[in-house]
Amino acid sequence: MTEWDVRKLRILRTLRDRGTVTATAEALLMTPSAVSQQLTNLAGQLGVPLLEPQGRRVRLTDAAHLVLRHAEAVFAQLERADADLAGYLRGESGQVRVGAFSTAVSALVVPAVRILAAEDRPGPQVRVREAEAAEAYELLSAGEVDLALSLAAHAPTARDPRFTLLPLLADPLDVALPAGHRLAGAPALRLADLSREAWIFGGSGPWSEITTAACEAAGFVPEQAHSAAGWTTILVMVRAGMGVALVPRMVSASDRPRDGVVMRILEADRPYRHVVAAVRQGAEDGPATARVLAALRLAAERSVQQGKSVQQTVQQN
Asked: Most CB contacts within 10 A, which of 106, 172, 175, 235?
C-alpha cells in the first residue's frame, strides 16, 4: 500500500498555491533545500514524479495534481477532526452515559439535559439509564455508565479508590398523611407523633434504611404495614388510609395524588436523603462529564429553590 505523508502533502499543496519553492519555504518557515528534499522523498514514497522543471522554476506534474485532488479530501476530513476534537476539549461533544434512580431522572437528569440544550453552544450527548440506587455503582464499575446518581446511604466508602463522590443535593423528607388523618392539621408535627402509625416503605434497600434510620433517630422503630417501591403506589395507599410514609420532596408533582393526601414538613426532625453523583476516579475532569456535572449541580440548586416554594405552599395549607 502506498504511504501517504500528510505533512509532505501539505508542502506540495503550498507549492501549488505559492508557485515557487522559495515562496513555499517562506510560508512554511522552512529552507528551500528542505522543501525540495521533502518533496523528493514524497515522490519516492508515492512512486511517481511530482515536479518537472520549467525554466528556472518547477511545476507540478499531472500526477501531482491527481495526488492533490485526493489529498484535499484528506485535508478536509482532518479539519473536521480538528474541529470535533476542539469541541470535545470544550465539552461540546462526546457522549456521557448517566445511570440514575427514577426520581433523580425526572428531578435532576432531565432538567440538566434541558439546561445543556438551552446553552448557546453545543453540548455532549447524554444517554440515560434508569437504575436502582444500589445498582448504579455496579454499572459505573463495569464501565456501563460514565456517571451515576445515587444516595449517600448506599454509596461506597469515600476512601474507595475506584470512585469520586460529589454531593449534589440534600433532599428533605416530608411525611404523607391521609387527608382525614387526626394529625393532618396538627401544628409543629414531629416524627415521634407518628410512632404508633402504620408505615409504608420499601421492603429492602436504601429507602427502607432511610425511613428506618429517620424514625429511629426520632426514638421509635416504624411498624411496616405495607411494602412498596413506587411513589405512585405508596401515595395511593396513603390516600386510601392504609398508612403514612416519608416522601422525598423532589418526587415530581405528577407522582402526587391531587387530593386525599396531606404533605407535612417535619421542621423539628428535618430528615433528609443525600443525593450524590459518582464517577470513576479522575473522570470528573473530562470536558463532557464536567459539563454534565455542572448542569446537574444547577438543576439541583433549582430543585432546592423549587422545594422552598413547595415548603411555603405546604405551610400555608
From this structure: 175
Name beta bridge partners: 22. Answer: none
The C-alpha cell at 136 is: 448504579
- The answer to whether the beta carbons of residues 219 and 192 sit under 8 Å apart is yes
Q: Is the CB of residue 150 less than 8 Å from the CB of residue 165?
A: no
Query: Which residues have CB under 8 Å from 168's CB, separation 6+?
Result: 108, 149, 275, 276, 277, 296, 297, 300
Between 5-19, 173-187, 195-209, the lowest mean confidence (pLDDT) is in 195-209
Distance between first and last Cα of the chain: 79
Nearest to 163 by CA among 289, 284, 273: 284
- The 10s digit of each residue's pLDDT in 12-45 is 989 998 889 999 999 899 999 999 999 999 999 9
Angle at 198 between CA 194 and CA 201, to 5 degrees: 100
Q: How many CB atoms lie within 10 A of CB 65?
A: 12
Q: Mapping DSSP to helix (H, G, I), strand (E, B) and coil, where does residue 149 land?
A: strand
Q: How far is the CA of 182 from the CAs of 74, 144, 193, 206, in angstroms?
A: 77, 48, 11, 29
Write the DSSP symbol of residue 150.
E
Residues 165, 139, 133: CA angle, nearest 5 degrees: 65
Burial of 53 (0-12, 13-18, 19+ CB in 10 A): exposed
Tell me how far apart the alpha carbons of residues 59 and 52 are, in angstroms, rounded to a whole number.
Answer: 6
Distance CA 296, CA 299 (A): 5
